Amino acid sequence: MLTNPQKRYLRKNAHSLHPIFQVGKGGVTPNMVIQIAKALEARELIKISVLQNCEVPKEEVAETISGRAGAELVQVIGRTIILYKESKTKKQIVLP
User: Fold this and answer.
1) Helix, strand, coil: what percent of the chain each, to 5?
2) What is the mean pLDDT of the chain?
3) Which one is predicted more confidently, 77 or 94?
4) Using an 8 Å Cβ cutoff, are 64 and 28 in contact?
5) Which of 13, 63, 84, 92 is most solvent-facing, going by the fewest CB within 10 Å?
6) What 3-state class would DSSP assign to 74?
7) Which of 75, 89, 2 is nearest to 42 (CA)?
8) pLDDT in tens, 14-39
9) Rounded to 10 degrees, what is the CA torsion of 21, 71, 93, 15?
10) Radius of gyration of the chain from Cα atoms?
11) 13 pLDDT tier (thresholds 50, 70, 90)
């Protein structure tokens, strides 16, 4: 579980990132979760964009992805989800 100062630090680092995944009408698929988990292992911090045609509420999408990928939900802002997961092999981010 992330503390508030850690979430603030991660939000600051995620500000310059661009979303690398999009969730659309098909919702969250098992293949998407696998790809997100791989991206989290490589980058530790990612953004995901929820498109307007997505039929599932963005908060539910965020909880589903973070739960299945084993990641921490940093923030849902607008239609953007920020996720963090500490890498086992390529640790880059040192949390305060």
Assistant:
1) 40, 20, 40
2) 95
3) 77
4) yes
5) 92
6) strand
7) 89
8) 999 999 999 999 899 999 999 999 99
9) 40
10) 13
11) very high
